[in-house]
Amino acid sequence: MTDHPLPFRDPRLPFAARVDDLLGRLTLDERIAMLHQFAPAVERLGLGPFRTGQEALHGVAWMGGATVFPQAVGLGATWNEELVRRVGEAVGDEVRAKRATDDRVGLNVWAPTVNLLRHPLWGRGEEGYAEDPALTSAIAVAYTRGLRGDHPHYWRTAPVLKHWLAHNNETDRDTASSSVRPRVLHEYDLRAFRDAVRAGAVAGVMPAYNLVNGRPNHVSPLLEQHLRSWTDQSLVVCSDAGAPSNLVDSEHYFDTHEEATAASLKAGVDSFTDHGQDSSVTTGRIRGALEKGLLAEKDIDTAVRRLLALRFALGEFDPGLDPYASTDAFDTPGHRALAQEAAEQAVVLLENDGLLPLAPADGRTVAVVGLLADACKLDWYSGTLLHRSTPLDGLRERYGAENVLFAEGADRVRLRCADGWLRVPEGTAPTDGGARGAEGALDPALLAGRTDLPPLVCDDTATELALVDWGDGVLTFRTGEGRYLSVADDGYVRASADEPGGWVVQETFRREAVEGHEDGHRLVHIGTGGYVSVAADGVKVAVAGEGIPAAGATVFTTETVERGVDAVARAAAAADTVIVVAGNDPHINGRETEDRTTLALPAQQESLWRAAHAANPRTALVLTSAYPYAVADAAASLPALVWTAHGGQAAGTALARVLAGDVSPAGRLPQTWYARDEDLPGLLDYDVIGSGQTYLYFDGTPLFPFGHGLSYTRFGYTDLAAEPDGDRLRVALTVTNEGAVAADEVAQVYVRAARAEDRDLPRRKLAGHRRVHLAPGAAERLTFDVPVEELGHWSVAHDRWTVEPGTYEILAGASSADVRLTTTVEIAGEPSGARPVVRHGLEAAGYDTQQDTEILDRTKEDGDVVAPAHDGRPGELLYRACDFGAGVGGLTLTASGGGSVVVEAGGERAEAVVPDTGGPYAFRTVEAGFGPRGVHDLRVTLRGTVRLARIGFTPAGGTE
User: Fold this and answer.
1) Active site residue 916
2) Where in this chain does the record put each Fibronectin type III-like domain (predicted)?
3) Structural domains for the chain
4) 301-326 tens-digit pLDDT
5) pLDDT in tens, 779-832
6) Structure pTM?
7) Collapsed DSSP state (helix, strand, coil) of residue 580
8) CA 844 – CA 948 distance, rounded (Å)
């Protein structure tokens, strides 16, 4: 007789058998309920409630205080997998520790984000690791391994990768379609997800809001065709918040929610994140889909089986055996030290003519100035700070407070209207200790939106405010006590926020000129779009249903008490050296839901470094930002330039240690820094090959290249060797510290085909990297094991991965542009040959190059077509080296829509008219005479609304 009356409770059985047993005991309603993010308890079987989703991008987020590590892009800048694995372990332990005292904390963590940093204006660039798929994969594998833990059966946490697939725009993010051709799909976007899944430390993925090739990611066939083909492990697909409803409500891809829900489940979505904690809408749709025959119970069981497997792996049913169940490692000295180490390793030295390091010395004074000089900024996916270090804090600690001067550089202003001066009433500063964190820092989550404080008034007394223009005319106002003007749900303006933040930022405003008032302006509250108006009971903003027309809004004039540039210039002139700290606030001008509009540093911050430099040539600019900036003038003018992502709780201490020389900088850029906006492709242009994006294909001169970063010492590279060994390429080189400072170096190995420019192949591609610490004079022989397949590319001619025979170059050095050593290897490979078009025809999306076309969906379930991208403008496709053999007797086009298709090859030309088929999914076959022979490039021109799926060719003399 067993001690475990129910088999699913028996830990001696394999997880799969236990899952099957439990699944068989659940009623249909209980199984349906498990498909929502918030699955209820099943009390009759002793099952507790379960939720998917816990944000943990660079620390435990949204659940109060936690250790805050550098932003994900900062972790990517470390180029250090071992460090990132330890960060993942620490975050996983803190998730477990918080779960032990707060059952709102989930163990299914939605992290990391592995979307590639293809476009530097993407608002969520802070969440990714790199523009390169190999580096992104390496960092993601490390982080997920830390989150997962190393037990063979039980998982510390269950990581879910975000966001599947080809997602790099917040503009129209739920309706925009990414046109991704096969080479970009296989060589770029899929690669970022593949290696982490294959490594076995990933529990699943989250589809992105956008569409790919005209089809929403939540019904993508690629989930089954690729994602789940990479592993035998059960993977859970969790929808993004609200995305299931978007299939009908904003995308209009399906007519009913029952159809959309059924299609999502069949495509592979297992957990529906929709309508918050109210699961009734989702479960109602699933029942409706069952009743209409759109779903079968087996579809539900497939998804529930995956969700149950996840719960077993997290130890839910074996608390006595789960090695992570008793973890209490939270805010430990080790975690604090790790946060500082990560922040130090993320610092990138961009330029330096000898100003840095700036060692403390008797009589040396340092002015730290700039809008971020005394800031420790968080982002949407940060936890609440338990500890806080700003650049000013760090420099005062390192150089001595008496040796550090400070000027923020914000303009000091007063606002006046017809009723008097804008004033913050007494009592606005919060006094309740419960709103403060462990170190006394005010918790912005508790302060923003407060309604128990008095609203602003207009009377005879003025309150001086710090005014910052963050770019694009986005303004914030802050009191001398550090409180931002904020708008609560009741519409009143109060000085109540510790920082700008929230899903809708309530602390940002914009000026609007007023006709007839030369110096007057209205204030628009960006969060609501309403106008600021002075009322008898206080200053307020129009709330829903009470819109104040522009003519009725209060007109303000601004009196400048002191210009920020003047304060900065004074501090700079009084100091030996100046550190200007500039950058972004992660809740403003570039964040989830909002892309940036320019690479330029905001004008107010541009003026500050120029003022500092004019007053003191010994000026360094530190960019603390989630994104690259085009700062060519600063790079050319200033003696030193530094970049670091927002570095979390230890950011200031870490920066000061690097500036002082306690740590030699060794961070490396994880993405290209372009020199100007004109170097960028369109935000929605996902063809990285055709439009020359990222270091892989960009043929211009970047401001700073991928992999760039300087040191306080010199490193030499010698003895590069590369030798094919079966399906591997053995690469070795020696790195020597030739200077007098112990430091890290990041050795980088790139590969390229000797004639890459002839075949639209990468100019160079990262194949290996290693961060190594070397004492002065020390040398280390580094070895890299590179799969030969890394030398290849996706052959659209043969629909497979191909490594062509020939000469390949191996390049080693300190960045993608700083190549120190080169050697070559001969690879036997397999010649791909010409396209066998007579036998296999041409899939329209398998082109080599295109102009003015887009890839769309052939059906709602699967397949691609190509169509003109712009009304009234033809689209052009090129298919290289098509083998027509002894000749063809004609062609057949499979197309929908309406228009014409012109096909040209070998001096032959055919034009076929495609009559309007009656809809995008109503295909018909059109024939035309066409008679080339031999091997030729084939050109296709598309006009009208035609959607071309396929071209078939008839051999001369009939079918084969």
Assistant:
1) no
2) 745-816
3) 357-409+570-662 (3.40.50.1700), 419-554 (2.80.10.50), 713-827 (2.60.40.10), 837-955 (2.60.120.260)
4) 999 999 999 999 999 999 999 999 99
5) 999 999 999 999 999 999 999 999 999 999 999 999 999 999 999 999 998 888
6) 0.96
7) strand
8) 6
